[in-house]
Amino acid sequence: xxxxxxKYVIEVAEKGSITEAAKSLFIAQPSLSAAIRELEEEIATTxxxxxSRGILLxxxxxxxxxxxxxxxxxxxxxxxxxxAHQEVRQRFSVSTQHYSFTSSAFIxxxxxxxxxxxxxxxxxxxxxxxxMDVKNLRSEMGVIYMSAFNEAVISKTLREANLVFxxxxxxxxxxxxxxxxxxxxRTSVSMADLVDxxxxxxxxxxxxxxxxxxxxxxxxxxxxxxxxxxxxxxxDLMVGTDGYTISSGICPSYLRGEDIISIPLQVDExxxxxxxxxxxxRPTPLGQEYLDVLHRIVGDMQTVPA
Length: 306
Description:
Elements: H1 3-15, H2 18-25, H3 29-43, E1 48-51, E2 54-57, H4 59-83, E3 90-96, H5 100-112, E4 118-124, H6 127-135, E5 141-146, H7 151-160, E6 163-171, E7 174-178, E8 199-202, E9 225-228, H8 231-240, E10 244-247, H9 253-256, E11 260-264, E12 271-278, H10 285-302
Parallel strand pairs: 3-4, 3-5, 8-9
Antiparallel strand pairs: 1-2, 5-12, 6-12, 7-10, 7-11
Helix pairs in contact: 1-2, 1-4, 5-10
């Protein structure tokens, strides 16, 4: 097994095609195919399944890819420090559902290292993608939520991925609405109060099962429903329409301000938000720094009245 072969696997996985990967790597397609085949034979594992429209990673290949990325990244660090004699580029990545407090912690991390060389990545997206990012070591950690409704399915998915969930905090459900929303002056709301308002949720792609929804009560039907993929759009919709989204109520002051209002929702539910990592995970210095900032920000926000 060579470092070059690991780089080939990463490139093929990212391109989804042997042909496209060969073009990107400036090598002949037969040579690339042979290198991948030799690696598969050496490790006695099928990494890719060849299809008419490209290639697909096998479950074993997905796991191998995660380790390959880690090895290649570490090799790059060694080259930077001992061969190129460059300042070592610090790397950290986190995947998360659409939470403003995870972004706030990430911003603090970036500011704290403003005078250093770094490559930080914040992947904010779908629930299943967040879990897979951590499983495949694309991200050091992830942030998701569990509730009584989805816990069995999410826990099973985490176990199968060799991941663990560490709770950050538990919260009662709230809704977020814009300041001009007809419910903006209420001290609490019921589900009946929301019937005539647009329900704003995050679209979950191919894994759009109720259990992977980012909002509780995902099985309820709504006469008016809007699905989005990014946080900026959902904030714009809250400000510009009468729409609402169900959340933990934990929100940075720059969003709580005058534009977005958090109102307790009268339902018998609890939202448990936590960090997911590999079972045998030991935080890197940057990972621990991010966790420390995350705990502090969440603690500060929970002291602010809803």
